[in-house]
């Protein structure tokens, strides 16, 4: 019996060894297959317009590394985004119209990506990629909207839609700042753009044996225009350049793109990496316009012959560069593609290029650009693309809208332009083409009807959830009829406004709610003045303005069935309420009553489940 058992054991061990070896080789094959899938780096520059690149005709700016990428990429020359940043990011990352994704503003609770939306990072992650993001998010700073909630394994970001905005760390100034790393505040040395690229390179180096998706959305060249004088100096004393610091910020981006490309080459990663370079809206400071501050004709600077700048409904507000390079995919020679394309095309394009699987219930508004890369434009001939800038609580039909087909542009439903004959959109020819106007309005009405049911859906910040407790609320996200206090200067100068936060109470229970005038990190009392920020060494940036003290006498909190007003100790940092909240939807609003009788909302509120 013993010898028989030994023989059986030997046979069993041999069987296990064979199975293990087969499993090993299967795993090796699977790993090799995964490694051969292309990596993706998506660079999204803030506020850089089509004309803010030397290779695209700008006679003043120097962008040698972006020019090199342009020379070896497929260039989409009629590519469009939304005219402002958060909507563009929503569309780019979801493959949906920004309006469908719930993002048609940059503040007022309408820069928060609807919870139901699936992002590019989630799709890559579900397909075995490691995912990372370095820079500006601007689609929500609370659960469930943060980048780490939407598919990113590694996140390094500032708060809000730009540094110095309300939810950014107080007095961040682009140099040696506090950023949020995977949910925790951490101080980093160096200029912001240098930090984003340096940390991206470190992360790629640590994960280069796996397919990776790296999202690099820079906060520059968005205001405030802080950059070392060494970058802006070449553009000083040139009357044709509206703002030297703006070009200096782009020069710093260009330097970092060069550094990234050199690293990819040296590490033998570049050939199988898809590099995408694009921007989020038209130029902010590369051109000045006459007349209307957004929609006029260029009077100074360079804008590639387009009318309007950032936030404009005209071409200069939403036509931006899109370059795509991938050596192993055969995209290494400069090639212009002049068909009408848009930001929501990028995700379906990457799905096809990378062979990604998506959930059956995901239907993109965009379409893959792969046929265009292969020289087939048949699916794009009669295409209609619509972009708009709503910047309001509830969307309105035709509000600051451009409907595009080929080189035709219908603006707000009443102005028609033919860019072949009139690239600067100077002559409205709507009266000459009444039938075309009717055709385009029918297309727009169908588009609006499709999206309108989703306009009632509010993105709701969770409170009482283990992913973020306490939840820190910022006045940037107030739902209000005006412009909420979205910048730290509004806090300094005691901007008078109020609104409510749309919340989802995750669990019924007891909650502690703290109301502040100043952000927690300042440790300032309710009636204090904030210190003046010192000037930034090595730059032309001046000191901040003095702040205004508020004499707050009473505070009020209203949320669900709770509504209470209390007297205030003005020397305290915050006013604290303890409330019982019931699981489900809620609106939370606060009031500070001043000694003058005026009221305003608490700029900063924290909600913690006890």
Automatic annotation (TrEMBL):
Sulfatase N-terminal domain boundaries: 38-355
Keyword Hydrolase attributed: yes
InterPro entries according to UniProt: Alkaline_phosphatase_core_sf, Sulfatase, Sulfatase_CS, Sulfatase_N
Gene3D superfamilies according to UniProt: 3.30.1120.10, Alkaline Phosphatase, subunit A
PROSITE patterns registered for this protein in UniProt: SULFATASE_1 (PS00523)
CDD domains the record matches: ARS_like
Keywords: Calcium, Hydrolase, Membrane, Metal-binding, Transmembrane, Transmembrane helix
Pfam families cross-referenced by the UniProt entry: Sulfatase
UniProt keyword annotation of Membrane present: yes
Transmembrane regions listed in the UniProt entry: 12-30
Protein family per UniProt: Belongs to the sulfatase family.
Name of the protein described by the UniProt record: Arylsulfatase A
Biological source species: Zobellia uliginosa
Lineage: Bacteria, Pseudomonadati, Bacteroidota, Flavobacteriia, Flavobacteriales
């Amino acid at each position: 019996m013993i010898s028989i058992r030994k023989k059986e054991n030997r046979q069993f061990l041999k069987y296990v060894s064979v199975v293990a070896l087969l499993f090993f080789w299967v795993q090796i094959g699977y790993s090799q297959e995964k490694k051969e899938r292309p990596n993706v780096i998506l660079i999204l520059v803030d506020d850089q317009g089509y004309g803010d690149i030397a290779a695209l005709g700008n006679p003043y700016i120097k962008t040698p590394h972006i020019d090199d990428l342009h020379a070896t990429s497929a260039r989409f020359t009629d590519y469009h985004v939304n005219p402002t940043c958060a909507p563009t990011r929503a569309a780019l990352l979801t493959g949906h119209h920004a309006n469908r994704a719930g993002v048609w503003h940059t503040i007022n609770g309408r820069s928060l990506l609807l919870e139901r939306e699936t992002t590019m990072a989630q799709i890559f992650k579900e397909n075995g990629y490691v995912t990372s993001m370095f820079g500006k998010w601007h689609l929500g700073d609370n659960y469930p909207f943060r980048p780490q909630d939407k598919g990113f394994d590694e996140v390094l970001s500032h708060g809000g839609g730009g540094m110095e905005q309300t939810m950014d760390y107080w007095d961040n100034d682009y140099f040696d700042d506090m950023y949020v790393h995977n949910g925790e505040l951490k101080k980093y040395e160096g200029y912001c753009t240098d930090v984003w690229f340096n940390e991206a390179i470190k992360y790629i180096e640590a994960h280069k044996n796996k397919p990776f998706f790296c999202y690099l959305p820079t906060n520059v060249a968005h205001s405030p225009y802080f950059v070392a004088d060494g970058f802006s100096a070449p553009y000083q004393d040139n009357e044709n350049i509206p703002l030297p610091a703006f070009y200096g910020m782009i020069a710093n981006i260009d330097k970092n793109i060069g550094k990234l490309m050199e690293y990819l080459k040296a590490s033998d990663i570049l050939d199988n990496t898809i590099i995408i370079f694009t921007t989020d809206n038209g130029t902010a400071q590369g051109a000045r316009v006459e007349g209307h501050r957004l929609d006029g004709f260029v009077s100074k600077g360079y804008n590639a012959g387009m009318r309007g700048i950032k936030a404009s409904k005209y071409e200069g507000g939403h036509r931006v560069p899109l370059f795509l390079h991938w050596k192993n995919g055969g995209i290494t020679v400069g090639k212009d593609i002049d068909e009408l394309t848009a930001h929501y095309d990028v995700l379906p394009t990457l799905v096809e290029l990378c062979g990604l699987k998506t959930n059956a219930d995901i239907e993109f508004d965009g379409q893959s650009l792969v046929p265009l890369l292969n020289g087939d434009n048949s699916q794009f001939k009669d295409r209609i693309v619509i972009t708009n800038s709503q910047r309001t609580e509830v969307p309105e039909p035709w509000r600051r809208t451009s409907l595009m087909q080929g080189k035709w542009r219908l603006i707000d439903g009443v102005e028609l332009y033919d860019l072949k004959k009139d690239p600067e959109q100077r002559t409205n020819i709507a009266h000459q083409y009444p039938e075309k106007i009717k055709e385009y309005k029918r297309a727009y009405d169908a588009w609006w009807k499709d999206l309108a049911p989703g306009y009632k859906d509010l993105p709701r910040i969770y409170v009482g959830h283990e992913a973020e407790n306490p939840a820190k609320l910022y006045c940037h996200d107030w739902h209000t009829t005006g412009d909420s206090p979205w910048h730290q200067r509004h806090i300094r100068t005691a901007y008078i406004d109020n609104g409510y936060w749309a919340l989802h109470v995750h669990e019924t229970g007891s909650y502690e709610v703290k109301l502040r005038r100043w952000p927690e990190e300042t440790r300032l009392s309710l009636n204090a003045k904030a210190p003046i920020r010192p000037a930034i060494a090595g730059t032309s940036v001046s000191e901040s303005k003095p702040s205004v003290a508020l004499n707050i006498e009473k505070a009020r909190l209203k949320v669900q069935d709770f509504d209470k007003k209390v007297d205030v100790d003005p020397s305290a940092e915050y006013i604290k309420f303890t409330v019982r909240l019931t699981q489900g939807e809620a609106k939370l609003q606060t009031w500070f009553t001043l000694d003058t009788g005026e009221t305003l909302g608490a700029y900063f509120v924290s909600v913690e489940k006890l």
